[in-house]
Amino acid sequence: MTDTKSSSDRSPSDDEKTLPKSVEVHDGIIKTSDGEVLQDPDAHLSDHEKQQAERKLLWKLDIYLIPWLTLLYLVAFLDRTNIGNANVDGLSRDLHLSDTQYAATLSLFFVSYSLFEPLTNIMLKRYSPRVFLTVTMTAWGVVMTLMGLVENFSGLAAARWFLGLMEAGLFPGINFYLSSWYKRSELGIRAAVFFSAAALSGSFGGLLAAAIALMDGIGGKRGWAWIFILEGLVTVILGLLTWFMVQDFPAEATFLTEGERARVLKRLREDNQASAEHSKLTMKDVLDAYKDWKTYAFAIVYMGCDGSLYAFSLFTPSIISALGYTSTKANLLSVPPYAAAAILTIIVGWQADRQRRRGIWNILCSILGIAGFAMLLGSQTPGVKYAAVFLGALGIYPCIANTVTWTANNSEGVYKRGVVTGTVIGWGNLNGVVSSEVYRSKDKPKYYPGHGVVLGYLTLFLFVGSVVTELLLMRENKLRRAGKRDYRAEGKTEEEIMALGDQRPDFIYTL
Predict the structure, then answer these.
(1) What DSSP string runs through 164-215?
(2) Whose CA is closest to 94, among 266, 226, 205?
(3) Residue 11 pLDDT > 50
(4) Residues 201, 204, 207, 211: is their CA dihedral positive or negative?
(5) Which residues pair with residue 26 across a beta bridge?
(6) Which of 61, 116, 134, 308 has its CA 20 to 30 A from that of 176?
(7) Residues 213, 327: contact at Cβ < 8 Å?
(8) What is the Cα–Cα distance from 511 to 441, expressed in whole angstroms?
(9) For residue 156, what pLDDT is reported?
(10) Residue 25, pLDDT score
(11) pLDDT at 252 over 70
């Protein structure tokens, strides 16, 4: 949330009733070149008419932006985790993979993914969302298709490395992209809706894998190979369509009128977001991100949910299979927990936006996950363990979107936010290396080491990390409201004060 002095519920000042006219466009931001100005499109409207115009604008943004981005992430997470379904269907057996080799193929994805993720938001800003998303998505679709042709460990390992490289930019890129269109208090539900695709991909992926596996033997290929080939071809098609479906930044949006584009930029400025302003990347942006304690606090919180997420999503079919079900039934039984997680993810996003509180939702959800993995460790009854899988999903998935939104809400400056979110997400994904090593076939059916590691992640990093971060943000807000940070603005022009980003005295952190 922001300080009430700068929130959108007050009347705009005279200075705020003019907006830059689009004369030159740089990096998706309108820049005035001749001093001309465009009148505020809301200046002549009553309060009721302004609310109606804003609702209409939000609805239009939602219709044009959210469905396609959600579809892209569903496909991305499906391509990332379908190796778990393929393994249940005989991947390791047919390629003669040892436990160590199979775990290595999982780890290689996260290594390349994490190494390149912090750079991707800068690349998205530099080359535009349309170019960046089209190229990366088409490329990873090609890699996924080729995974269906591998014949040994080396081929599978190489494919997983390049899959991680190509997918690295999507999740942080979409979060960064959405933050350039919506206010901070509106971002949570949108991020939750698009991230719910990750949970839906688990549900959809189980059904799809069960169906595709029935093609076993067609064309001399095993069922698991067809999972990779068909899902990869779909990704290639969607990647090419992305060129026509994705708009760049607000100032260049062809689906908006000139007045609507101005209204988007005005709303962002009223929300104290530098996303509405033209800027260039400087080393100061990078240093500001890495000198900020919040970068490391959110990285710790995110590793708690993301490390748990990958362990859960990669091995849920194997965990359910260990309860005594066949590969097809195991894939089908993995559907309901994911569906429940998708619903809760959206509910949490909606409530967090409504209350403008995010940390408390991480804390509450993490308790569900902790209970679930404690049950997996403490019981060998199939019904109890299946119920525990539900709790695990409910405790992990909502925290991913919530934590990323929490991070973006508290990082201001278009490039600083990009570096911070990319670093936080990259560090979280690097913990997928740990996740891919802890569920070993020799630990069946109890999987004590894997469940114990995930329980530790949820407790120490997600739960405790969220509590500590919330308390520190609360303390800083009290200091700012008491005027203890006003010295930062002394002697500075309005432009210099705005350049302080989230270090401005009147920038109030979202708890």
Answers:
(1) HHHHTTHHHHHHHHHHTTS-HHHHHHHHHHHHHHHHHHHHHHHHHHHHHGGG
(2) 226
(3) no
(4) negative
(5) 29
(6) 308
(7) yes
(8) 41
(9) 92
(10) 35
(11) yes
Enter the tokens of residue 405: 């939104």
Q: Burial letters for 303-329: b for 16+ Cβ neighbours within 10 Å, e otherwise?
A: bbbbbbbbbbbbbbbbbbbbbebebbe
Distance between CA 190 and CA 320 in Å, rounded?
A: 31
Residue 285 has a pLDDT of 74
Average pLDDT (366-372) is 95
Asked whether 365 and 309 are in contact (CB, 8 A), the reply is no
* HSE, side-chain direction, 13 A CA sphere, residue 140: 30
φ, ψ dihedrals at 39, nearest 5°: -60, 145
Containing H/E element for 31? strand 29-31
pTM score of the predicted model: 0.71
Residue 29 pairs with which residues in a beta bridge?
A: 26
Burial 347-376, CB ≥16 within 10 A → b, else e: ebbebbbeeebbbbbbbebbbbbbbbbbbb
User: Is the preceding peptide bond at 445 cis, omega within 30 degrees of 0?
Assistant: yes
Cβ proximity of 502 and 477 under 8 Å: no
289-331 confidence digits (pLDDT tens): 888 899 999 999 999 998 888 787 767 766 676 666 666 676 6
CA distances from 178 to 192, 218, 268, 355 (A): 12, 42, 12, 20
Tokens of 260: 């609507």
Stated as kind and residue range, the H or E segment containing 219 is none
Q: Which two tokens stand for residue 85?
A: 């379904």
Quick one: which of 504, 44, 36, 501 has its CA closest to 276? 501
Q: Is the pLDDT of residue 284 over 80?
A: no
3-state secondary structure of 24: strand
Condensed to tens digits (0 to 9), the pLDDT of residues 48-99 reads 777 888 888 889 998 888 889 888 888 887 887 788 778 878 888 889 988 8
What Å distances lie between residue 437 and 23, 367, 468, CA to CA?
54, 24, 29
Tell how many helices (H) and how many strands (E) occur in the chain. 20, 4
Comparing C-alpha atoms, which of 231, 213, 218 is closest to residue 90? Answer: 213
Burial 170-207 (b: 16+ CB within 10 A, else e): bbbbbbbbbbbbbbbbbbbbbbbbbbbbbbbbbbbbbe
* Torsional sign, CA 423, 280, 139, 76: positive
